[in-house]
Design brief:
This protein is elongated. It is mostly helical. Helix 1 (3-43) runs antiparallel to helix 4 (126-157), helix 2 packs antiparallel against helix 3 (84-114) and helix 3 (84-114) runs antiparallel to helix 4 (126-157). Helix content is 80%, strand content 0%. It has helices spanning 3-43, 56-80, 84-114, 126-157, 167-192. The chain contains five helices and no strands. The chain has one domain (18-46, 54-192): Four Helix Bundle (Hemerythrin (Met), subunit A), CATH 1.20.120.80.
């Protein structure tokens, strides 16, 4: 077997395994968040449970992450039409919206603190602590998504994607949409279960 056929065989194997491996990792992440939200539900029956309004910054971050999914979808559509300029613009917009999401999440933590709701300490309440822990766990996944976006943007500028070859962009999109949908579900969870 020559080098070229080995390389081609590797590419085929990579294509077949990449998406299933990503889906398996997303299922395990989902299980973690199911466990964390279950702890939140169980804890809401405690006598010392304190309900509070969600910080305005969390509403803003939710809008930003929804917009980031839209811009990523437009970027994927643009590369399929071989429109490299539009793809570049929408990938960079996605990255900026993702950074904005993280910024407003952190602002939300500051809003909680200025309302007297702390993560830990004698003045902390379990409801705020769990909201912060779950949100922070999600932010860590968004950071992973931002790294994925940076890699996708780098590969795009290296011209590794085109109308036919989009695997890396698709994998990045699947993960990015996953963290987006995960936050929307968490936000709705926090909104309705206080």
């Amino acid at each position: 077997m020559n080098n070229q056929s080995l390389e081609e065989e590797y590419k085929v194997a990579h294509r077949k395994s990449a998406k299933p491996m990503l889906w398996i990792s997303m299922v395990s992440m989902t299980m973690m968040f199911i466990g964390l939200t279950s702890a939140y539900i169980v804890s809401s029956n405690r006598e010392d449970w304190v309900s509070f309004e969600l910080p305005i910054a969390l509403y803003i971050s939710t809008v930003l992450i929804i917009l980031s999914s839209i811009t990523f979808l437009v970027a994927k559509k643009s590369i399929r039409n071989d429109n490299r300029t539009a793809t570049s613009i929408f990938l960079i917009l996605t990255l900026l919206l993702g950074i904005g999401f993280v910024y407003y999440q952190v602002q939300g933590f500051y809003e909680l603190r200025s309302s007297g709701l702390y993560l830990a300490g004698k003045d902390s309440v379990v409801s705020a602590s769990l909201l912060i822990v779950i949100s922070f766990a999600h932010i860590i996944h968004v950071f992973a998504g931002l790294i994925v976006l940076i890699v996708v943007i780098y590969n795009h500028f290296k011209k590794r994607y085109n109308a036919i070859e989009t695997l890396g962009l698709e994998l990045g999109g699947i993960f990015w949409h996953f963290v987006d949908i995960l936050w929307i579900l968490l936000f709705l969870f926090f909104y309705f279960i206080r």
